[in-house]
Amino acid sequence: MFKNIINAIKAYFGSFKLMSKLGLWKYFGIPILISFVIGWCYLLMIYFLSSTLGALISKIWIWEWGAQTFATISTYLGGLIIFAVGLILYKHIVMALSSPFMSPVSEKIEKYLLGEEDYVPQQASFTKQLARSIRVNARNLFRELLFLIPLLILSLIPVVGIVGTILIFVIQAYYVGFGNMDYTMERHFNYKDSVRFVRKHRGTAIGNGLIFVFMLFIPILGLIITLPIAVVAASTETVKLLKAEGFLKIEHTKKELLDVEEQPKLEQS
């Protein structure tokens, strides 16, 4: 697993070069706009809702002594909850809505890595891509939230909280990496098989997602470049895994097909 994590991280270093070589920048206009708009909504949500949620939490403390201290802690806790939940919502909304624009990028990378002669076009329609991406990201969103609630509580405990915080980042990385890998897997697997494939290669998902999450903390620029770079990196690694395990269909030339058809006749003669 650790080897796959490292390989997924290394894939980011060649993303810019590959994007320029294949002329992929033109596909990123709408996804960047989606990411930027959803990102600003996320930041505004943190700004306006943190204090409100903090005030609600502070009402749990019914005693007068220590009320001010608990109110201060509640404000920070409210901000942490809004930040964590909002980040999860942001990632999955952006990935789901960007699917019809990211899938062609993934397909071009697959075609480039396999070669023109060996590539078999399998791209689905705009509607099917969007519907599948919404299903995948809704499933991942629900599972992330299930893990998030107990981990947020754990992260507030001194010393032990460090482990909780690390687990929050790792789990988020896994599911965001899953979404980025699915832009390629959607052409080869159904929904259930995609889940099994990512579980088997969870290291690739985690490695891709870790850089994705960290890049989001780059002011402004993170909202613009993170998704395109992450998708390119995820696509290159996913294609390599699919090819290594024999899941990619190879298109035979007419001559090869004729040779196969003629072979029984030759044997009979």
UniProtKB/TrEMBL annotation:
Alphabetical UniProt keywords: Amino-acid biosynthesis, Cell inner membrane, Cell membrane, Membrane, Sulfate transport, Transmembrane, Transmembrane helix, Transport
Residue spans crossing the bilayer: 27-49, 69-90, 145-175, 210-234
Signal sequence residues: none
Compartment(s) where it occurs, according to its Swiss-Prot or TrEMBL record: Membrane
One GO BP: sulfate assimilation
GO CC annotations on file: plasma membrane
Bilayer topology: Multi-pass membrane protein
Any coiled-coil regions, as ranges: none
Major site of localization recorded for this protein: membrane
This protein's name: EI24 domain-containing protein
Superkingdom: Bacteria
Gene Ontology MF term list: high-affinity sulfate:proton symporter activity
